[in-house]
């Protein structure tokens, strides 16, 4: 079977890879490109742990074929921090103890970033609605929502 040559941008960097026709973007990110921040929680698009931005749209990378990223932009959780400086969302997750085992955390961070890019002044209801596709089995959602709300306030202040 022939492999597909893909040219894409991941976290702002030009990237090329070869993939099988049925290989998921999640598998290429983790196994071929070493971007292991994106997690596989369910493999069926139900938990949100594998959330990435594809051309700015929030998607479950377990449901996207790796070949579909050709000539497109992918943003993963690794793209949030600026070197050693954490993104405000990452810092607020730490400040609010909004993480435990860490499987869901990358997906929540990417989803929250997508929300704040579209709506920098979300209500608590907006945050809960936007993050409804992400499941957490450890922390509970109140700390996560508080962290996102706090990050939004900080980001608005500059």
What does the model show?
The protein is α+β, with helices and mostly antiparallel strands and 158 residues long. It has two domains: 4-77, Beta-grasp domain (Ubiquitin-like (UB roll), Roll), CATH 3.10.20.30; 88-157, DNA polymerase, domain 1 (Orthogonal Bundle), CATH 1.10.150. Helices cover 34% and strands 16% of the residues. The chain has five helices and five strands, in the order ββαβββαααα. The protein has helices at 25-32, 88-95, 105-118, 124-130, 141-157; strands at 4-10, 13-19, 51-54, 57-60, 73-75. It has a five-stranded mixed beta sheet with strand order 2-1-5-3-4, sandwiched between helices. The longest helix has 17 residues, at 141-157. It is globular, with a radius of gyration of 16 Å.
């Amino acid at each position: 079977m022939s492999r597909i040559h893909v040219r894409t941008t991941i976290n702002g960097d030009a990237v090329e890879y070869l993939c099988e026709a049925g290989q998921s973007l999640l598998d290429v990110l983790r196994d071929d490109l070493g971007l292991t921040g994106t997690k596989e929680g369910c493999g069926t698009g139900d938990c949100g742990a594998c959330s990435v931005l594809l051309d700015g749209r929030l998607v479950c990378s377990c449901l996207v074929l790796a070949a579909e990223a050709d000539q497109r932009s992918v943003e993963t959780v690794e793209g949030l921090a600026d070197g050693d400086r954490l993104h405000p969302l990452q810092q607020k997750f730490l400040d609010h103890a909004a993480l435990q085992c860490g499987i869901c955390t990358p997906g929540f961070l990417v989803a929250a970033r997508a929300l704040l890019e579209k709506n920098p002044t979300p209500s608590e209801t907006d945050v809960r609605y936007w993050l409804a596709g992400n499941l957490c089995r450890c922390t509970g959602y109140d700390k996560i929502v508080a962290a996102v709300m706090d990050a939004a306030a900080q980001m608005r202040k500059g």
